[in-house]
UniProtKB/TrEMBL annotation:
<dbReference type="Pfam" id="PF13359">
    <property type="entry name" value="DDE_Tnp_4"/>
</dbReference>
<comment type="similarity">
    <text>Belongs to the HARBI1 family.</text>
</comment>
<dbReference type="GO" id="GO:0046872">
    <property type="term" value="F:metal ion binding"/>
</dbReference>
<protein>
    <recommendedName>
        <fullName>DDE Tnp4 domain-containing protein</fullName>
    </recommendedName>
</protein>
<dbReference type="InterPro" id="IPR045249">
    <property type="entry name" value="HARBI1-like"/>
</dbReference>
<feature type="domain" description="DDE Tnp4">
    <location>
        <begin position="167"/>
        <end position="322"/>
    </location>
</feature>
<keyword id="KW-0539">Nucleus</keyword>
<keyword id="KW-0378">Hydrolase</keyword>
<dbReference type="GO" id="GO:0016787">
    <property type="term" value="F:hydrolase activity"/>
</dbReference>
<keyword id="KW-0540">Nuclease</keyword>
<dbReference type="GO" id="GO:0004518">
    <property type="term" value="F:nuclease activity"/>
</dbReference>
<dbReference type="InterPro" id="IPR027806">
    <property type="entry name" value="HARBI1_dom"/>
</dbReference>
<keyword id="KW-0479">Metal-binding</keyword>
<dbReference type="GO" id="GO:0005634">
    <property type="term" value="C:nucleus"/>
</dbReference>
Length: 379
């Protein structure tokens, strides 16, 4: 006599069993894929390419890359993991900064998954913006001897006395932020951005960067609330005759020289403004060179991150920009990107202020002296 079954299996049983088998198979594939990638990473050394190709991929040469990795090892918490070396993490981030490519495309070239690439970019970016690294690569001339070197270079190159830096703000495209803060990042140029203030020397080396403010913030507001503004005022109080050069979006001050917009052609004021414009082109060139080398910052490569992370990426690229200058690494071939303005410009948003302010009056008095001096120098 045939024994009846102890129980009947329901359709749910077969569904759960099939799901478990499918999940097990998927997990097994994942493990095999991870193992394959680890093996490929060990087998293929990404540094083992010729120098030209290395610079083309990563925008640095091998010497500067090794120097950067040593600095990160010594001064930051960036470490190698059991599967990925510190050097590979840095190369992964450099590739992303250099191309602005989507992370999956970056990862495919390095045998890394998108999640791993994202983690590498975050870790390296955080390391590059730590104070220890920032203070190594981006340094405002707080020592008198450093200011004298910069001032003499500006004068030798452009014939404008007393300049220790050129200042301006640059808008970097970012993805639409959260609705509650979106208004802070919508610029007068009608896109979402960070308005990043930078100061550079005559060699386009970045001396100071401030990426804290959204595109809706005016250049003058960022300047008035900056540490460098307070420091420049302290130099003026100590009777040191040095200044920064800014466009008409900044207030005229004894420590900040701006152009004379209503200068009549052929007058000393017109000559001053022309020399001012030729000198201040250094900051426009700095923006152009920064975006050309690190193309994740181009307007066609909108940063798809929250504003805080975008600010870190921009600052990290400024660190790498100065590193490239330090090692005399040639510029990459120009791309079809936002071109720097190579001639004197008038700010689209001219600064308006009370014309009776003490700082403005003293600033105009010093500028008048400069006008006469530059007229004699360039006659």
């Amino acid at each position: 006599m045939q024994r009846p079954p102890l129980y009947e299996r329901s359709p749910l049983y077969y569904f759960v069993a099939a799901s478990l088998l499918e999940n097990e198979e998927y997990s097994s594939r994942e493990v095999r894929e991870i193992t394959r990638r680890v093996a490929l990473r060990k087998k293929n050394n990404p540094v083992d390419i010729n120098d030209a190709e290395f610079k083309n991929r990563y925008r640095l040469n091998k010497e500067s890359f090794k120097f950067l990795c040593n600095q990160l090892k010594q001064k930051t918490s960036l470490k190698a993991s059991s599967r990925i070396s510190l050097e590979l993490k840095v190369l992964c981030a450099l590739s992303f900064y250099a191309t602005g490519s989507y992370q999956r495309l970056v990862g495919m070239a390095k045998y890394l998954g998108q999640t791993t690439v994202s983690k590498c970019v975050k870790e390296v970016t955080d390391a590059l913006v730590t104070p220890a690294i920032l203070n190594t690569f981006i340094k405002f001339p707080y020592a008198r001897a450093d200011r004298d070197v910069i001032r003499n270079k500006f004068f030798a190159k452009y014939g404008f006395p007393g300049v220790i830096g050129c200042i301006d703000g640059c808008h970097f495209h970012i993805f639409t932020p959260k609705k509650e803060v979106e208004h802070l990042y919508y610029s007068r140029k009608h896109f979402h951005s960070l308005n990043v203030q930078m100061i550079c020397d005559s060699d386009c080396r970045i001396l100071n960067v401030n990426a804290k403010y959204g595109g809706a913030t005016h250049d003058a507001f960022i300047w008035e609330n900056s540490v460098v503004n307070n420091y420049m005022q302290s130099l003026h109080r100590n009777n040191e005759q040095v200044w920064l050069l800014g466009d008409s979006g900044y207030p005229q001050r004894p420590w900040l020289m701006t152009p004379i917009l209503d200068a009549v052609e052929g007058t000393p004021a017109y000559k001053y403004t022309a020399v001012h414009g030729r000198t201040r082109v250094a900051i426009e060139n700095t923006f152009g060179r920064l975006k050309n080398r690190w193309r994740c910052l181009c307007k066609d490569r909108t940063l798809h991150y929250a504003p805080v992370k975008c600010a870190k990426i921009i600052t990290a690229c400024c660190v790498l920009h100065n590193l490239a200058i330090e090692f005399n690494i040639p510029e990459p071939e120009p791309a079809e990107i936002e071109n720097p303005n190579l001639t004197m410009t008038i700010s689209e948003h001219i600064f308006q202020e009370n014309t009776t302010g003490d700082g403005l009056i003293r600033g105009r008095a010093i500028r008048s002296i400069l006008v006469d001096k530059i007229n004699r120098l360039h006659t």
